Amino acid sequence: MILPFRTPSDADAALPYVRTHLSSDAVLGYPTETVYGFGTAPRAEAVAALVALKGRAPGKPFLLLISGRQMALDWGLVFNAAAEALAEAFWPGPLTLVLPGGEGRLPTTLRGPEGGVAVRYTGHPLLARLIGGLGEPLTSTSANRPGEKPAPGAERLAAAFSAAVATRELLILDGGVLGNVPPSTVVDCTEPTTKLIREGALPRPELRRAVGRYAP
Whole-angstrom Cα distance, residue 176 to residue 2? Predict the structure, then answer.
């Protein structure tokens, strides 16, 4: 199924369908401020379904999308001084922070080798509205198979994963065709000294201009 997702009323209308879909540990396809993504409820069984759909090697973690900093705190994630500064400067937006905490609340399959969970307060207003309505984070990864580029729009995405759409393993939100935007920048904030894991939409000099010594 493909649902329209271009206006606030579209997001509100999609919410009950998305909630029911995610409750069965199925996968959602959706637009973000960077590329189309795949995501699930933050449960181990749902993440396993996402791994299977994407065809991703086990052990590589996914990130979490949230609708505000308070949601991260509610799920037990911890902000040190650097994470606080970076979140204040760049959230919502294309900055992913790897944060400690969340033990006992979030599946271990979301935890990276440094022990943290990658989190982003999405800058896509409709997606943030949807996540806020769900009341829980949404796991996230680019909507593609390994080695392929993410589909630019919902119809191409549905064609690439037509079998999953037909069996209702995949529900897609149609937010139109996205531009060629780099993925989010990823910063490890599990230690007092931050580390740049991936330079994406926000280059390192921009991070340093905004937060000085807290930047990687």
Answer: 12
Q: Which of 1-10, 93-102, 144-153 has the lowest mean pLDDT?
A: 144-153
CA–CA dist 11, 6 (Å, integer): 7
Tokens standing for residue 207: 């991070």
Asked if residues 64 and 120 have their Cβ atoms less than 8 Å apart, the reply is yes
Prediction pTM value: 0.92
Strand order, beta sheet including 138-142 = 2-4, 170-174, 27-31, 36-39, 138-142, 63-66, 117-121, 95-99, 185-188, 195-198
Domains of the chain: 2-214 (3.90.870.10)
Lowest mean pLDDT among 47-51, 53-57, 142-146, 207-211: 53-57
Q: Do 109 and 14 form a contact (C-beta atoms < 8 A)? A: no
